[in-house]
Amino acid sequence: MRGKRSKQYRKLMQQYGLTFGFREPYQVLIDAQMLQDTSRFKMDLVTGLERTLHGQVKPMITQCTMRHLYLLPTSTPTESAPPASLTTMSGKNALIDLARTFERRRCDHHTLDKPLSTLECFTSVVDPKGSGTNKNRYIVASQEEEVRRWARGVRGVPSVYVKRSVMVMEPMSEGSLGVREGAERGKLRGGIRKVGGQGESKRKREDEGEEAVTDDKEAKKKRTRGVKGPNPLSMKKAKKEVVLEKVGAIDGLDGTDGHILQNISADELMAPGTDLSTPYKKKRKRKHKSGTLGAGNDAAADIDQNEEDPASA
Hints:
- By secondary structure, the protein is α/β, with parallel strands linked by helices.
- It is 43% helix and 9% strand.
- It has 12 helices and 6 strands.
- The chain has helices at 2-20, 32-40, 45-53, 63-70, 89-100, 118-126, 145-153, 174-190, 202-221, 258-261, 266-270, 295-308; strands spanning 26-30, 57-62, 103-105, 138-141, 159-163, 166-169.
- Strands 3-2-1-4-5-6 form a 6-stranded mixed beta sheet, sandwiched between helices.
- Strand 5 and strand 6 (166-169) form a beta hairpin.
């Protein structure tokens, strides 16, 4: 039975988180009677709350509850079995010390001569405007029946109490169930939207992210580009200019040798130290014949070539 109840509580807290935006650590308002009963049953209050709510908790206590603890009636040492409404002085001090370790929730009732009741104090903290909503997402841990009855009338208020040394969480109230069902219907009709002030859901953020990606792709497709030119790496390099005109007019050279100077580049012609007074001498290329011919044939070939080339004579 304990495992089944634990699964129900886990599912219930998940519903509170999805519908009303509850998150860890859970803020738990504790009254004086809850402290007394857990102390009488030898229970660890914080551990029991974490086990019941399936998450980390932040126990909180109001100023009125602290004043209630200081005003607790105590029994005398002569009484062997004090009634449940009375506590010993040492037990009272232990409760006060435990309550001091909790976070103090200011209710602004400390200026009054007497502390307000638990119902009035919790009402001013959880729903000060009377709108029937739990804006700050408090969880009420109280042993008073009237406080739990009031918590059922406020939408989104989980209620916890102790019954025979067992911590129990009440099921979701009708008002809270109506809010959850309305949120589910809204998701089915128009997609996921903002519910109970919890912010945009994960699915809506993912849809917006996909729309942004598609917009970026369309913008990239519509980008216009200029006319494509040839690849400069595949083009041939430009050749140097060759002197073709008026070669014979340089330094008194006649035009007869112009055909020799036509193969000279402009850089070589205008380079410092170039002597233009003498005609350019064409280099002779040696023509080698096949190796089967003897040395005499090579010599004869050289003589014939010299006779054909008057410049080399």
